[in-house]
Amino acid sequence: MTDEQTADVRILGELRTASGAGVVHIEDRFDTGVDDLWTALTDPARLARWLGEFDGELRLHGDFGARFFASGWEGTGRVEECEAPNHLLLSTVETPEPGEQAEPPHAIEAWLTPEGAATRLVVEERGMPVDQVAAYGAGVQIHVEDLASHLAGGGRCDSQARFAELFPAYRTLPVSGREA
């Protein structure tokens, strides 16, 4: 991919560090009401159409297992905060492959704000290794784009092709707060 092609990719995210770990911050506006967007983020049947498979208890202090389609991520999580339809905080732990060391837990937080008939979604994932924050940025954006497609009645993207487009652009983003 050339620099010119990289410049044409719409980037939704910002990258930074906090407490020595990577942070991906993504915002987007969806042409749907806050209740519909909330349901798309919390109902297992709807999550299975755009994000992945969930089992367990998707309620406050509930524990769950999940597998995300786009990234292949598998792990467990807990619903730490749930204030329908505006705020959700999850903690997640990836299930390591045999012989690999587990990453530290991640926090995935979402805020939904009505804007007339539309809704602004802010998603922040925290806790990844700083040297992998660009890859996580591309991955989180793919999830947000799959959510947008789901809300518009479409399907998921070709995640490998989309990652190949997004990752070079994310690698050029500054990582604010990067510690030396």
UniProtKB/TrEMBL annotation:
InterPro entries: ASHA1/2-like_C, START-like_dom_sf. Signal peptide: none annotated. It comes from the Bacteria. SUPFAM superfamilies: Bet v1-like. Residues 34-151 form the Activator of Hsp90 ATPase homologue 1/2-like C-terminal domain. Belongs to the AHA1 family. This is Activator of Hsp90 ATPase homologue 1/2-like C-terminal domain-containing protein. It comes from Humibacter ginsenosidimutans.
